[in-house]
Amino acid sequence: MNRASDFDRIFYPESVAVVGASGEPGRPGYQFMRTLLEFGYRGRLYPINPEAPEEILGFKTYPSVRDVPDPVDFVFVTVPASAVPGVISDCVARGVAGVEIFTSGFREVGEDGRKLEEEIVRLAKGKLRVIGPNCFGVYCPRGGLTLLPGARLPSDSGDVAFISQSGGLALYFVWAASGCGLRFSKVVSYGNACDLNESDFLEYLGSDDETKVIAAYIEGVKEGSRFFRLARGLLGKKPVIVWKGGLTQTGGRAASSHTGSLAGERAVWQAFSRQTGAVLVDDFEELVDAVLFFRQCRRNIGRRVAVIGGGGAVGVAAGDVCERMGLVLPVAPAEMQQRLRALLPPVGTSIRNPFDIGAPVLPAQLFKRVLEVLLSWEEIDVVVIDRVYLYGLEGLNGVPDSGCEERLEVVLDLQQKTDKQFVVVTEELTTAADKIKVEVERRSAQQRLFNAGIAFAPSLTRATTALARVCWYQEKVR
Amino acid sequence: MNRASDFDRIFYPESVAVVGASGEPGRPGYQFMRTLLEFGYRGRLYPINPEAPEEILGFKTYPSVRDVPDPVDFVFVTVPASAVPGVISDCVARGVAGVEIFTSGFREVGEDGRKLEEEIVRLAKGKLRVIGPNCFGVYCPRGGLTLLPGARLPSDSGDVAFISQSGGLALYFVWAASGCGLRFSKVVSYGNACDLNESDFLEYLGSDDETKVIAAYIEGVKEGSRFFRLARGLLGKKPVIVWKGGLTQTGGRAASSHTGSLAGERAVWQAFSRQTGAVLVDDFEELVDAVLFFRQCRRNIGRRVAVIGGGGAVGVAAGDVCERMGLVLPVAPAEMQQRLRALLPPVGTSIRNPFDIGAPVLPAQLFKRVLEVLLSWEEIDVVVIDRVYLYGLEGLNGVPDSGCEERLEVVLDLQQKTDKQFVVVTEELTTAADKIKVEVERRSAQQRLFNAGIAFAPSLTRATTALARVCWYQEKVR
């Protein structure tokens, strides 16, 4: 059996069967069909249910996968746990490449479930690849597939892959990350990982041309040494970013009842990271930020940072947080200070690094000249911009001609002309219900920053945390 | 000279003079006048400028403070640094209570500036209180005062006070915190603190009836032992939350050029916190969250937390982060697990704590019954709700009847009936530009959570960080 071709039939299926399909709008078996159609799956589709009406949503129903007249590549299973082994036998008999089992109630609920799961593994072994059980399955825009509640996920493809033991998290991650501009090659929620596990997906994604960055939410690893070997093999090829859930006792307890996983020690994972170059993150926001920064940042950046802000506390905060993160702020050489002094007023500004331009509303042309001086500085790799207004100011203070658009264009434009990396802190500024206009402008600005190859995060701490991870990784590669 | 009455004349002035007022719309001296009027100052107002037209914005201009016919309580100074000593002499002669000096170019720029600042101190000593120089001054809605760029800050009062060496930060903080529902008694940007310093404000705010929570951004402390004594004296009366800028070498370098402050060692500040019960935070977001949590949380809560989420990864993440923060998740007793088991399906849920209700869209009545079981549990103080949809779902997945409003009402209602504390994680969900409707609903939900006395933050990490700080403080008090 050719593994690569199985994966292709799973991710880009010409035909899909939905076992447990239903004609009743409230039922999951109906939702699954509808979600797939709404999302835009264009292959052949076979609802399977011996008790369902002749047609569901216009597609002819079959009593079993065995009864489908044409080849079936990929099968979605939403029948109760006890009926799953029968479905697996049918799929094996029909020559199906893979199934995703949405149903829960296996290893994660105890002994009976564990036995049922082992039965599935036994039936499928060497004949059929299984994703799940207890999962949301596959989101692969190019293949027309989406997670069960994912009818409205972006239908365009991208270069980020995400594998997740949690289905809900897979969904949350796509929502959050696609909001930043990121798009996905493949997202797989693989739940209990009874057959295909994190190592299988890592291996596949490692050689998948669509995928440039690989992220993972993992509760327990099935084949530790294989996973280690694969991760190390990807160092310098594709960054692997791992959020490991269940590293504490309390988290581990939850992981056991969530996906039946044996969690693992923090120290073990830290050693794994050091030795493989896989990047560990600690929470959901760090995961989103890391993926965005790895996707956006140039390959040759180091830890030497210039910070520019419009107001002194930014400089102080940036100095503190950069030092905590292990980033380095070199002091500007005298010659450069002179050039900046010629541009900026002597009072209320600071020209050593962090650079305080005095006001967050510096005229765009002057802001540009200051940035050009910074970009000409050979001792730095990254310019972090914080609290210089690039959006939203009119909505906040009512002054219409505040120059945000012009300053934003300066940044977008300069990124195209430099080999240094811009990082912009895109603060939410306010969550006041009556100031939603500020947020609309912020989102539009973020989209444009994304398109220009600029990295951004909504706080200085988050931005520098993610940046430090990219630097750490690039040092590992070097 | 009666100190309290000086402060009253500063924060609630019956008359204000603006020295350096201008008739030209582009100039700061014009903006200051306009901002004050737009914000709604209703006392007597005197533009001061020997070269200005007879009237500015309808107010008669005087050449000097000495020439104002009526008593003047508070004076704003926006003239160049070298002219400030003369203004101070005028104010002393006129019996003014206080001045705020917006002008920069003093201690923070070097030796000449330091001398000028000392001259001001000498002239004012014992006769006139000085805020600044190098500051944005006072925002006190009840007194009709606002920060220079603060025309659109909320005009209603609240119970939070914030003192900040940085003016920009004072503004950012009011924007961010008022967006969450918080309102302010007094905000003071006090810059170089040549006269009135953090200790003076802490003393005043400690006995200010309007103020319930005191927050501070501090770069350098002028009177260390007094500040220590005051902070310790407030333990159990009003929480004091401090963001100390410049705790690293790089941050300290920036602080010196920002407000001419000598920063200080991290260890010293940690000892200060342990010994006084003042709460230290590390960045802007932590400051906002801490203030909100201290404002919202009930006084008797401890570290024992129940976490409820709609999806297993929430439980894993919550277990991990709570343990890291020093919060405790007791395991639900058998009897309680039975009651929950009777409510929730056996598969896809977890009833030990963290509580996984299986889906983030549990019907409201069922959600209510589950929460009631949790609230009846004597071993916990706090219920954290994460990834149960209380807003925004229709905008995300297009399913209109998703029950968010009903679930939100359940939470709002139950908070009024319990002595435990709800904490809700109000994730941003997506920042996609075309999904702004989700954000509109989120903001409205946050406002209602605020009004119901519920604490919230946009991530699990931020929520538990802030919660752990409240618990730490309440243990200090006990």
Backbone CA Rg of chain A: 25 Å
Mean pLDDT of chain A: 93
- Strand fraction of chain A equals 15-25%
The chain pair forming the largest interface, with residue counts per chain, is: A-B, 89 and 89 residues
- Tally of contiguous helical segments of chain A: 17
Strand line-up across the major sheet of chain A: 8-10-9-11-12-13
- Extract low-pLDDT stretches of chain A: none
Oligomer: homodimer
> What is the terminal-to-terminal distance of chain A?
38 Å
Give a structural overview.
Two copies of one chain form a homodimer. The first copy, chain A, is an alpha/beta fold and about 475 residues long. Chain A has 17 helices and 19 strands. A six-stranded mixed beta sheet of chain A has the order 8-10-9-11-12-13, with helices on both faces. In chain A, strand 9 (about 155-165), helix 5 (about 165-180) and strand 10 (about 185-190) form a beta-alpha-beta unit. In chain A, helix 10 (about 285-295) packs across helix 17. The longest helix of chain A has 18 residues, at about 460-475. Chain A starts with a helix and ends with a helix. The mean pLDDT of chain A is about 95. Chains A and B meet through helix 5, helix 8, helix 11 and helix 16 of A and helix 5, helix 8, helix 11 and helix 16 of B.
